[in-house]
Design a protein that fits this description.
Layout: E1 3-7, H1 12-25, E2 30-34, H2 38-43, H3 48-51, E3 56-59, E4 66-68, H4 70-79, H5 83-92, H6 96-115
Parallel strand pairs: 1-2
Antiparallel strand pairs: 1-3, 3-4
Length: 138
């Protein structure tokens, strides 16, 4: 099953996290679309204003099934090996979900001032359409 991660390709923190996920996943479950690729985002019915609300995870098998912001981060974590255990524990701890959501919003809204902005958009080695390491830049 393939999932599409829409991320801010100009955000240093976002790119670092995408690169970490690329290394962990090696294109097995996820491909990546920078939110700056407005044409591809538009094909999914996603506007630039939607992207400003945080990263988006789209289920490739059911594109209407989507997560955004901290929900997307949790779902990505859940999909990783052993991730279900950690995400379930996080969600079970009183107040953690609320704290995580607020922290995500603060980081999202201050990402450029806190972590910097790239001079060019990062394009993943595992772009949309990269399946079974075919059409990939690895």
């Amino acid at each position: 099953m393939q999932y599409h991660v829409i991320y801010d390709g100009n955000c240093n923190l976002c790119v670092t996290l995408v690169q970490l996920l690329e290394n962990l996943d090696q294109g097995q479950q996820f491909d990546y679309i920078p939110m700056q690729d407005e044409a591809t985002c538009e094909n999914f019915g996603i506007t630039p204003q939607d992207c400003e609300m945080g990263m988006i995870l789209i289920d490739g098998a059911s594109p209407e099934c989507r997560w955004q912001g901290s929900e997307a981060a949790e779902e990505i974590g859940r999909l990783l090996p052993m991730g279900e255990v950690f995400v379930s524990a996080y969600r079970a701890m009183p107040g953690m979900k609320w704290l995580g959501d607020r922290t995500y919003q603060q980081v999202r809204d201050n990402r450029y001032s806190w972590f910097g902005k790239r001079s060019s958009t990062y394009n993943s080695a595992y772009p949309l359409g990269c399946q079974d390491n075919q059409n990939c830049q690895t």
